Amino acid sequence: MNKMTEKELFSTAQAADVLGVSRIAVFKSIKSGKLPATRVGRSYVIEKEDLMEFLGISLKKEKNEIEMSVKKTVQEYGDALRRLGKE
Description:
CATH class: Mainly Alpha
Number of helices: 4
Radius of gyration: 19 Å
Low-confidence stretches: none
Mean pLDDT: 87
Shape: elongated
Distance between the termini: 47 Å
Strand content: 5-15%
Structural class: alpha+beta
């Protein structure tokens, strides 16, 4: 079963595992306010809905960056790419 379907709250380590990033990256996202979390003692917990929303936002941002990079590459190297495609 999917990791995210059974849990309602995630620790920073579990959120890092789901997101595929380091715990430090999760802490930075929490501190910057990008990833909502609740402090419990000395630790943080992240709600499932917040984690899913953060994951969706991250994917959209990456997709936009990739699309912009492809457009720039085609603009700058379009002729060379067409020539290479013919070979």
